[in-house]
Amino acid sequence: MQDWLDEIHWNADGLVPAIAQDYKTGRILMMAWMNRESLALTARENRAIYWSRSRGKLWRKGEESGHVQKVHELRLDCDADVIVLQVEQLGGIACHTGRESCFYRVFEDGAWKVVDPILKDPDAIYHAGHRHE
Amino acid sequence: MQDWLDEIHWNADGLVPAIAQDYKTGRILMMAWMNRESLALTARENRAIYWSRSRGKLWRKGEESGHVQKVHELRLDCDADVIVLQVEQLGGIACHTGRESCFYRVFEDGAWKVVDPILKDPDAIYHAGHRHE
User: Fold this and answer.
1) What is the pLDDT of residue A105?
2) What is the pLDDT of residues A60-108, one digit of tens each?
3) Which domains does chain B have, with CATH numbers?
4) DSSP single-letter state for residue A90
């Protein structure tokens, strides 16, 4: 009864990229990875739950920061190997740098230029030693 | 003088995910992959040039279909391992199925449901034997 999960073409590590987009503004907030369990939990709980490759465990987005992503819609692409999540970003901050979006650098004149402000000091968001939530 | 390319954290295969978003509507059209050469060419030519993993060669999006993506902006994320492209999608069709976006399936009632129309028959877009451009 979980055919929808079987339709996904997981990569060699059992993961797919998951793109989180603000459901109101359309801004792309971040891209992370999901495994079968995290996608199943995301659909069940209607909040974004990723797989942290660096920590090798489930990452309940916002578990420490409070910056939970409430899921409004899940989409799958033609090759069944990429997910798009329409989310409501609680706190208005998706990035661990304290910015709205992780995509805060624009290519200009041959360089990546930071164009978005830090909305909240990461030290005020996270406890010591847990910068990536 | 290509420091901006050295800042990218390429994966073990020398690739990064590249997300194409409609620069006017914000709709996410597709996600593909880029290597160093394809990203350099994308920036130089202001059109999306991906790396086709299945064919193992550069993929000048629209080379056969005419559905070129003109690049308006390139962004890089905090971890320097994902690119977002703001594009103008010529022909209004990004997907090889003939749809506007590759993300045409929505999760509903435990299943992936096709919700977007085919705008043009793929047979009319591609020549025989070249379905993925």
Assistant:
1) 98
2) 999 999 999 999 999 999 999 999 999 999 999 999 999 999 999 999 9
3) 4-94 (3.10.20.810)
4) G
- Tell me if B28 and A84 make a contact (CB, 8 A cut-off): yes
Instruction: Say if residues B48 and B42 touch (Cβ distance below 8 Å).
Output: yes
Local confidence band at B130 (pLDDT 50, 70, 90 cut-offs): low
Q: Is A19 close to B30, i.e. CB distance below 8 A?
A: no
- Encode B64-77: b = buried (16+ Cβ within 10 Å), e = exposed: ebebbbbbeebbbb
Q: Tell me the chain A residues in contact with residue B78 when contact means C-beta distances shorter than 8 Å.
A: 95-97, 99, 102, 104
Task: Write down the pLDDT at residue B126.
Answer: 86
The interface predicted TM-score (ipTM) is: 0.94
- Residue contact A103–B25, C-beta within 8 A: no
Which of B1, B2, B3, B4 should we substitute to test contact with A (largest number of A Cβ atoms within 10 Å)? B4
Question: To the nearest whole angstrom, how far is the Cα of A75 from the nearest Cα of chain B?
Answer: 5
Query: What is the Cα–Cα distance from B44 to B78, expressed in whole angstroms?
Result: 23
Q: For residues B57 and B121, what is the distance between their CA atoms, to the nearest angstrom? A: 26
Contact A116, A94 (CB under 8 A): no
Q: Do A3 and B102 touch (CB under 8 A)?
A: no
This prediction's pTM = 0.95
Interface with chain B: mutation pick from A79, A114, A119, highest number of B CBs within 10 Å: A79
A103 and B112: CB-CB below 8 Å?
no
Please, are residues A89 and A22 in contact by the beta-carbon 8 Å criterion? yes
